[in-house]
Write the structure tokens for this entry.
Amino acid sequence: MTVLHKSLGLSTSLLLLSIGAAHAQDVDLRFPVSEFGTPGLIDMPTGEVFEDGTLLLSSAFHSGVQKYTLSFQLTPRIFGSFRYAIVDSFDGGDGARYDRSFDFGYLLAEETGLRPSMVVGLRDFGGTGVYGSEYLAATKHFMDDRLSVTGGIGWGRLSSYGGFQNPLGVIADEFKTRPFSGTDTGQLDLDQWFRGDAALFGGLAYQISPRLSFALEYSSDAYETEVANAGFEHKTPINASLSYGFENGGALTVYALHGSEVGFLASLPVHPQNPKYSSGIEDAPPALLPRRTAAALSWDEASIQTRESRTYAALEAEGIALEGISVAGSTATVRFVNGRYPATAQALGRTARVLANTLPAEITTFRLEATANGMTTSRTTLRRSDLEELEYDLDGTWRSYTRARIEDAPRTETQSIAGVYPKFDWRLTPYLDPALFDPDDPIRADAGLQAEASFTPMRGLIFSGTLRQPLVGNLDESTRSSNSVLPHVRTDSVSYATQSDLEIKHLTAEYFFRPGTNLFGRVTAGYLETMYGGVSGELLWKPVNGPLALGAELNYAKKREFDQLFGFQEYDIVTGHASAYYDFGGGYLGQVDVGRYLAGDYGATFSLDREFDNGFRVGAFFTLTDVSFDDFGEGSFDKGIRFTVPIDWLSGTATQGGYGTTIRPVLRDGGARLDVRNRLYEVVRGSQTNELEDRWGKFWR
């Protein structure tokens, strides 16, 4: 496949992402985006960061170079980027360099009346070092923010033009020289950062009109390797650009680079906190009937515990399954399954209103037991009088939350509805299975049909499976073989793609249970994932009102045959992890997993995710084990970024599920973990206090 075709494939992928994001907040960019997809002028960075929570997609082209970047403003001060670049003849000859790299920036100071904003950053750290550099940049705005002026100092590649002795050398002699570490390491070369010669850079950006902006910069990048190997001409350190912004915040830029190249840049900011339909477009919930109307309804305790009851039918119409109900005095306790709403708070609100409209007036308290995979995960107690008082209250959302009591429910206190079990469900859907950043072909994908079915004979016991039939795609065209010195626990993924047709993606029996207060359990057996079958057991301690959770998982895994049907290979292993989860608040979720991985290596995985109140989630992770960087191979250690886009964020409809993917620079065998479905933390936390509080705004929807 030619570089042009690869470029078109990646551009198409970016376009598909852009279509889903095209309803980004209507804003004008306050400052330009660099060709590296980060806050910057053209080549050079600025002393600014993106708006908090912004996810920016960009694609830049000039002769022989393509850059595709995903940047995320993780906190108000910290941004990170992942970049995939294709550089023709970078290493000499006719071949292309396929480069994967990460950037990091930290806002040291915000702009004030007298002080500029200042950012310290790392470009291409932990990658191959093609663009490896560090910088400190400052930016000040003038003329009602229409003019921004930037100045900065750079190291590494950003000191290759106009370099001088490192001023940090006054601190220690080690800063005066920059050790050479070679390329293709993927390591964090800490001994290089801010070392060696330094150079100054600067520039300005001017907002000509609300949609048109101009940028001019003095670049400290001499493009030494491109000049030596790729025929790049560096005629001047001056670069210029002209950008046009669209109503959705996207921009198209044309730039002149070093007097010898003309390039193009497309960028699109996505604001996860601002979905197209902020409150949803689902049907309105039922209004509360006057209590005297409910009092007039005929009922008895036996009738409400059947599938023919008015309560059962009303909840079913709302997409909520009633599994159990009991009445004791003035209190009704209800066990329900939320089958429709991404926010459990919305399911709670609708359930409470149905109960108020279908149960007699003497029932004044509702205890709602949320259930997931047969386990009760929390109990929320609401007073009927509060619902009536706050339904149209301007501050009803917050006041209703403060009056609710949320507690654990290790055992249900309801009488089960007759005939609820067994349950059977199935669906047939299309699927898309992408594989990114194969060094021989940057984007591969298969598309086809996927059949899923599940059978639940009793609470907590689930038999399920997924079959896939690829129809079109090129995953089976890969010829890249594994060169790993470790057991091929993941690097044989090409063989699973090339030697299979009809595929069993999973076929399992799962049992979920509650051993005690704040405790949750899971046992899974069968074909656990694409590459492994076996048995997996997990225990989770998760207080309903606390930010900390602790878990332990033990697995016996056996490698499946490449055809993804019923056979197994000889390789098997016992793996397991102890895990700690912490909700830091504000949507920040941390996780540490320590244990044994599929290749027999021991180590830990560190993860940090940011989840917005609407369920949009972006995160990053890395794994370090006792496998040496050399034995791990390309990339040195496992790392990547991941994101999940909920369906309702895109469509506005009350629909569970979404599209999620993980982007790794390279998939290797070290630090590889079993991919088991329904790990307990994600099953449980959505109906517990922290998540309920974050999404309680949906209670009255």
Q: What stands out?
A: The chain is about 15% helix and 45% strand.
